[in-house]
Protein 1
Amino acid sequence: MTWETVIGLEIHVQLSAESKIFSPASTVFCNAANTQVREVDCGFPGALPVLNRRVVDCAILLGTAISATVNQRSEFARKNYFYPDLPKGYQISQFEYPIVEHGEMWINGSQGEMRIGVTRAHLEEDAGKLIHDHWATSSGVDLNRAGTPLLEIVSEPDLRDINDAVLYASEMHKLVRWLGICDGNMQEGSFRIDANISVRHPGDELGTRCEIKNLNSFRFLEQALHYERERQINLIEDGGTVVQQTRLFNTASGETRAMRSKEDAHDYRYFPDPDLPPLLVDDAWIAEVIATMPELPRARAQRFINDYQLSSYDATLLTADKDFSDYYETLLAQLATDSEQRNQHAKLCANWLCGDFAALLNEHKIEISASKIDIAAFADLMRCLINDTISGKIAKTVLLKMWDSGEHASIIIEREGLMQISDSSALEKIGNDIIAANAQQAQQYRDGKDRLLGFFVGQMMKATKGQANPEQANEIMKRLLAQ
Amino acid sequence: MALTRQDIQKLAQLARLAQNPREEEDTLKSLNAVLGLIDELKNADVDNVDPMAYVQLHGQTLRTRAPAAVAGYPPEQLMQNAPQADENHFLVPKVIE
């Protein structure tokens, strides 16, 4: 009997805003405890929350990017529960009337182009942080994170495949970074995933689901879903039933364990927060935010395919990250002003960016914006390749030197004399010397051992420290050996 | 709809309120009186009225983008309000989920 997995994800996105959602305290990630706390954040009686306009902008951007409805009227509600990281005794969230509803994400997954419904996205505040292991009988409370703005994005239970679920999460991660509404830093908790998963036989009613909380990497998401899927299937096949539960993923053992079951699930007693009037967003506000919306990654990838004749693979690589993608576009613009020329160089630049340069960025684990090689310097390297000043092989060496110094390619080439040798008389002289020094191989070549040509071209590249124009070297050696 | 003694106990537990049996009885009576009034309100015809959580018609005042973040209070000052504190942390009885 086959099993079908049903997955829905709730993603908590920490919004990039300088101050908190309801208080003017800073949101910068900080290790000195309780240094970013104002009255509202520590629950002073009588302190009133004031909504940060920036977080609404962020919600409008996300809502528009996923073709959702941005509700012109939404409301904040109190979610009541007691826990020491929540000094007010309630979290301000949105419940019945969220700001964003009915959206969709498209992923290129197991069934090709797939639409994943987004039920809603709502604004809420984060809680503080508890430290358990520093005091013998106490837990410490740090409220720096309390009140940090979050957007919780809830998908429909549309996912049927674990790889698709991971892909959806990573596409959402890419999108929120692309929109500039989240820094995407998963180690610091800026992007956290709760996964709802159940199993059933295809065609049956939905099975009972479990929720795995607080997954902060795509690998953990994948591992947790695999473990939980197996656990539920084994449980049912052994005659048991799945109990609706909240579970935690143990990153060390790769297992999930029950955190709390539904019977003792919290009864949050939501009600509209009387401290906050409804949030009204008019057409003008939405239009103002949409005007700042960047071209979205999927649209840009399609444009790269259409205009630059890039492969879908290249286009995807070049739209994985907005800074990287913008770097590419600016690079092309610097190389040529007319579109025909630009299109000619598009593939070359794509290869160098996605190849050697991306490899360097990965190796050193830095973002493109932190690289010493600015766009003008990279454009200079591309020009040296286009006009045959250097060969591709030498360009790799030059790129490494640029990586260390940030200098322009032509400065390095000039200083270190790396110019390609295209002077045929110079190359002929070197060629004749090589033939004289390797008379035996030359004779063998003339006797029909064709593949020795490679040996002679190699000798010439060696003699010129790789600076001979490779095509010319090939042509000259062939001609000289035939004499 | 009337509440039972069990409902009151559940609510008291959720609100972290300790009640002796006599207090429970009082709360039960008071809350049921309130719910009775609500039952009366239910007789009103509201078919064409949108749910209204707020009386005012205008939206909320927003903190604009312009002034960035404001400095937090000195932690030592915040700790003055804590029954127990150490190393600039509020201390609470150990909680581990």
Protein 2
Amino acid sequence: MQSSRNRRPGELGFNLFLFGVSLFLFYSAYGISGFEALSAPGVVPMATTAVMFLSAGRILWDVLRRPASDTETLARDIIPLPIIVTIVMIALYAVLLRPLGFIPTSVLFLFVMIRYLSGHSLGFCLGTAAGTVALIYLIFRLIFSVLMPQGIVPEGEIIAWISSIF
Amino acid sequence: MDILSNLLMPVVDLKLLGLIAVGTFAGIYVGAIPGLSVTMAVSILISFTFSWDVYPALALMIGIYMGGVYGGSRTAILLNIPGAPSAIATAMDGFPLAQQGRAGEAIGIVTVVSFIGGFIGILALALFAPSLSDFAIRFQPRDFMLLAVMGILLVGSLSGESLVKGVFSGALGIAIGAVGMDPLTVQDRFVFGIDELRGGVSFVAVMIGMFGVAEALSQLHSVNTPAVKQKISRIIPAWPMVRKHLPLGLQTSTIGTIVGALPGTGGDIAALMAYDYAKRTTRNPETPFGKGAVEGLVAPETANNAAVGGAFIPMMTLGIPGDAVTAIMIGALFIHGLNPGPMLMVEQPHMFWFIVGSLMLANCFMLLFGLTGIKLFVKIVELPRTVLIPVILVLSIVGAYAVNNSVTDVYWMLGFGVFGYFMKEYGYPLGPIILGVILSRLLDDNWRRAIISEQESFGGLMRGIVSSPLSLCLFTVVVLIILSSTPAWKMLRRKRTA
Amino acid sequence: MLKSLLGAAAVMGLAALPALADFPEKDIQGIIQWGAGGSTDTVARSVTPHAEEVLGGKVILQNVTGGVGAIGLNQVERADADGYTVLFGAENPLLYKVMQLGQKDYSDFVPVNVLARGVPILVARPDAPFDTYPEMIEYIKANPKTVKFGSTGPGGLPSVVSSMIQSKAPIEVTFVPYDGDGPALTALQGGAIDVMPAVLGAAIESIKGGKMKAIAIFDTEAAPQLPETKTVVETNPEFGDILPWGPFFGVFVKKGTPDDAVAKLTEAYKAGAAHPDFVKLMEGRGYKMLSLTGEEAQTYLNDWQSKTSWLIWEGGIAKKSPEEFGIPKP
């Protein structure tokens, strides 16, 4: 990557963040058991967070010395719009998964995402979304008995009703 | 004679033959889809085969196991998303090959070397099971600790351009692995008062996030560039090519068998260690590691398939599971009225030979199914990314959920996915994080056991290491690995070769 | 089956007739609080198919592990109290409060069936310099701190048995913690530890195979699978007042579940536990069948909790006094 010469946009902030996290985790690891004994539950966490903290410091030092990139911008090269949209969509998915249930959330997510990324017709997007979810449901729920969050579609009752017919 | 008839039982009985075939075929897909794991499939089969006889039940499970370990490599090569933790190393050289349009060739090589690795593991099970399990069981906490340290040192091989970033990632992984209630003392670690964190962060969730979501996000950069056209003329690798890598494959199969036979370590660690071994011992690879080196495919794939046979070694001889899947199989034997333990081989040797025979057969089916149908599989890479990426995201979510039926794991997976994306962007390698998570407990628990056993005396621990030949041997390897990466050693070696 | 239930409901004059007639009207989710391949998992997976026959519906089993089983327990507790989420648990939750592992325990649940209990046994590596319990105690007293006991963390069976031993004869040993009795018994065979308190079922095959030796059975009566091994009460009668004791497995639903659902599940699991295949399986592994339901099960749970909580509190393992949670002294 070209980043070995110039500092990429946002790189400084991200490394500052990692440095801060390391420091916080080290503090938290110290709180587990202090220096009670060599076999204490906090010994390995303290050692690893110390390594994190030191290496993060070293990386930060390197990053600080490099000149900022003048050819890249945060909005174009690191988080262009499609990536922001995807991250937001993923967050929405996580929030809606429990209340709406797996089936409607996934269909909705796929529909919006495919439509946004590919710009195919509404019918194609809806068909692909519904087909994919049906396939996933078949494999995970019916064959592997993974009970996904049910939400608003009473799938448990529907399956019981269908199987009662046979 | 008796042995032979039991060994051939799955071959002559058409029903068993069919079940092993079906199991292996299904296993490849179970392994290929991240989030569907062999462990999960086998535990569901316990209920599914409850009323069956023990032989068909085992035949199906063995098929799934063998196919599943191999199947993990498929998505690793095609999408850079390892289907199972044991395929993480495979992605490092497999995906670059797919990007060069050589996915079919890569899958072909992986299939053949997986077969070879599987074969060696089963052979070791059939011939040396008692002595190997005797060796494996002698590993003391300090030996497991040294093994974990050896594993941690793989960070060097997985780091890519910046070692210090690799070290950071590895340490972060170990810290993530420590999250939750410490089972040895019931003390909370990195829990911050959040109840859901008590159970720890599911490492499959971390893996799917880091490799599935983060990869999908970074592929969004080039969402509109057309997919690489795949050449699929040559799938079965040419014999000279196989022969060239056979010595390496045999060595890494040995690593896989032993690591698989050790209780508490499985194919995931075996594959990473083998990759590291290949990287250290291969003098002049045709293609550099990380850019599509064939050695980078041979080593992990022989090792993780050899670990299957290895995992059965302590299970069959002592009733001790070699990994998570054999643990469930022991439960299955028990449900079917058998008593897995040291007496099983004495009282029911036919069970041992039946399992060896079924494994052999599953291994052959793996080769067969692996080499056919590749053309269809490779088409996945040629699908438009605008459709593929959303589907990968949904599959990642389902997969993370399915591991422990937990929505919290989904949140973690998504969180690590976004975090992993930024790490990738800023040049942090993700492999060491997974390595750290895998090794975290092995290192932490055994360090504490080792030091407790010596009454908290570090000197006592060192004396213990020096006085045991096994520990001393492992310790020497650790020291050599560390020395060989110092600048002084490298200079020495360069002088000698010059 | 359906008719008799309908009849019973009519007699009791319940209003919710249609719902009652149908339970279960969809798949039931069964949460196992321990991992695949463990003993709770094996027991749950072997009793459920028999229970399903009576239930007339499917129970989909899933392992929800972590936090000494607290993660799985909390998940069932958060679900609706409609009988469609069932917990397969072991004894651990009864110690959550005193161990500060969680705020919920079986008092938030209704026992469907307390299936069976395990018999604790003390095993040692085959070349250990003692064969019986009194010899072991003597050896430990002569060599303080050198004997290594395996443990599975505070609150687990080994810690409770060790507390029992300590309460009768204070000894100095080194406890080496493992994350389950499987790994600890493996370590015993490799010589990393000397003695391990375990459940009979987990050790029986290795004892028969000569990979470890039985020191004493921690129960009031000898085990039919190991007739030569003495019980600790035979050599040391002072243990008579705390034994029998043992870890158990049970099926639970959240408190507030409709009575008809509890009744149906109880009936199903009672029948499942009585199935000859299941009984044979459990006894072959050295478990004692209990199959307690209703009041009986509740009493068993309460007694177990009070006995064990106080034992580990006095042994210095518990973090909070059982008194704080209103657990009576036995």
